Each structure stands twice: as structure tokens, then as C-alpha cells.
């Protein structure tokens, strides 16, 4: 993988800013006076109008950004990704480009983020051993925390692409069937609404059906990463998940960050994944392969109060293994596929990426600074997930944030 650039920009960007020239994440935005959505690149507290900049300085690639989303760039492949990233880096660091680029920069606070790409398919994995074990103990008390297959393959389910929304979109409390402690089945708003802090991998180059992608081929297909909050209604999920897995408990909303950080920006975050036992089957065995662990540090806040700091480096299964397993069964990869990691959790009590873990299934509610307690989310609660990772020369690569506020359930008709 190409290392992230370390050049300095002619802009007044603070040296420690997470969206420095070593990051350069892509997104889609709207702004007053501009027609339709625009493709943008975040630099410091500004947004570069990439739709306009490419038309002026990179006309051969301008059609990739004409629609104002990342769809064209994702589909163009690794050669185009590298070319555009190099060009944007030059525009922001070489003085002669300043007269053209400076007028195309807008304060980020004056822009409205859009969903950055068209989500083709959404697959949510279950890649954290710590999360899976804690949830196993809650769902199957007295039994083995992990199912027999968990350490042999990346487990996941196919979610609803149409429920993926951009950060800042209100999250309506879902309703559905649930079973109370006495065994009665009722219908109503979820009483155990939860968040799940995750990292999402965005597919660029497609792969046809029936063509397995080996571990070494993942970099040809994965464009970059975003942050994900896969909101979960635990009471609905617990009643419905046997035998086919999540349905209404996961179908109502999945929030993603507005900025997609290219994998090229995370070269310095690469790290070896945890040891695996038993050793995976050959198509998943990455013992001698390029490391696909990423030292991304997440922070989860609830109403502005930090409740967890999950470490992504602790994830058992990597994105490369998830791609290899998904395609080994014949599934295609499509441009815009979103592959979410599953809840990111570490071994420590403060490293849990969900309230179900943090509160022991609701038995140990959190006390917030205002004195209120939370076993699960209340209407009006706002959850924000942020993250960063090591960059070149001691810098940090920012992944931005994914934010959502819970609104009341819609009354039943």
C-alpha cells in the first residue's frame, strides 16, 4: 500500500488537525449557491469542492465527480484512486495551484453532508471476540459464550442498504414484537435501544459472482473506511433472532460518517491482528500475509460524555478475511458495498462498543454527569462515535464522526 503523503499545505491547517494533508477524506455535500450535491475533500476545517476543482485541473477525471457522490471514483479502481489523491495533494501543497484552489474552499460548517456513496449492499460482521463473548454470556447464560463456528470463519448477516443514513440524521425509535420477563409477547416501541460502534469498509472495484477474492486481492477492491453506528433494538432482536438472525431489531437505521478515509491514508496504522486459535483454513490464513489489522482508536460519547474507548486493533477477523469469506461462497462485490466490522470492543470494561456490554445487559446502568442513569438509550439521547489512527511523522489520521439523536417512536396506526 502506498504511504500517506507528509507534505505541508499552503493553507493554515494546525499541525495536529486530524484532517491534515495526510488524511484527505472524500465525501458529498451541499452548500448555498451550488447546484445539487458536490463531491468534496476535507482539509482542516474546510471542504474543497472536488467537482469544480477536477473540472478545472483534472478534466480527464472530472466525470467521476460530476454527480456529486463518490460512486464514480469508487468504480474507477485503484489507479484512479492513486491519481486523484496525488493530484489533490499537489493542489493543496504546491503554491502555483493556490489561485485556482483557494476560491473552491468552503468552511465545513457552511456545508450540509450527504450520504457519500450509493450503498449497494450492507453486510454487518461480528468480528470482535470480546464483543461476541460478552453478548454470548448475556444471550446464553451458563452456556459457551462463543458458538462453535465463531473462531473458524467471519460471521455476519446481510442488512438493509436502504436503512443506511448519513451522520446527523435523526434515528426514530423502532417498534416491534418483544417478550417480557413473564413470557408474554407484546408489540410496541423498543425499550432496550442500543448503539454499536463499528468501522465500515467501502467497496470500490466490483468482483463478479463466483470469483473468490483472495486475501492478497482485498486492496484492489476496498477503497476506504468510514465510521458506523449500527443501532440495535435489543429486546426486538432477542425475540426474533432465532433461527434466522437480526431483522426488525437492526432494520430501522444504520448511521455512517460523511467522510470516507482512503486506505492509502491508513498505511501507518497497519498492525498485526490478534493470534488465532485454531489456525484458520488456508483461504483465511493470513499468517504470512500483509497485516490487515488497523490501530484505529474509537471514542463513544453519550450526550457529550465519554462512555467508551474501543480499540479496533483488537478485532479478531480483518476486512481482508471478511472479503475472502464473503466471496468464497460465490457472492459478488458491488461498487458501494458497505462491509461493517461489527461492534468494536476490547478486553477492558471501558472498551465496550455497546451499552449492552457496558451495562451488563442493563443490570448496571451508567450514571451520566447530569445525574441521570442509562441502561439503554432514552428519547433525545445523542450518540457520537469519533476515531483516529496513527499517521506519518507522529500525526493522527482522523475518521471524523458519526452522530445520531434518538427521536420518539411513530405511533402505531
CATH class of the largest domain: Alpha Beta
**Can you count the beta strands?**
26
Percent strand equals: 25-35%
- And the CATH topology of the largest domain? Fumarylacetoacetate hydrolase, domain 2
Tally of helical runs: 9
Tell me roughly what share of residues is in helical segments. Answer: 10-25%
User: How many domains?
Assistant: 2
User: What would you call the structural class?
Assistant: alpha+beta
CATH architecture of the largest domain: Alpha-Beta Complex
Q: State the CATH superfamily name of the largest domain.
A: Fumarylacetoacetase-like, C-terminal domain
Task: Write up what this structure looks like.
The protein is of the alpha+beta class and 413 residues long. The protein folds into two domains: 26-114, Fumarylacetoacetase, N-terminal domain (SH3 type barrels, Roll), CATH 2.30.30; 122-407, Alpha-Beta Complex (Fumarylacetoacetate hydrolase, domain 2). It is 17% helix and 27% strand. The chain is built from nine helices and 26 strands. The strands form seven sheets. Strands 6, 7, 8, 13, 14, 16, 17 and 22 form an eight-stranded mixed sheet that branches. Strands 4-3-2-1-5 form a five-stranded antiparallel sheet. The chain has a five-stranded mixed sheet with strand order 9-26-25-20-21, with no helix packed on it. A hairpin with a 5-residue loop joins β23 and β24 (373-374). The longest helix is centred in the first third of the chain and has 16 residues, at 78-93. It is globular, with a radius of gyration of 21 Å. The protein starts with 25 loop residues before the first strand and ends in a 6-residue tail after the last strand.
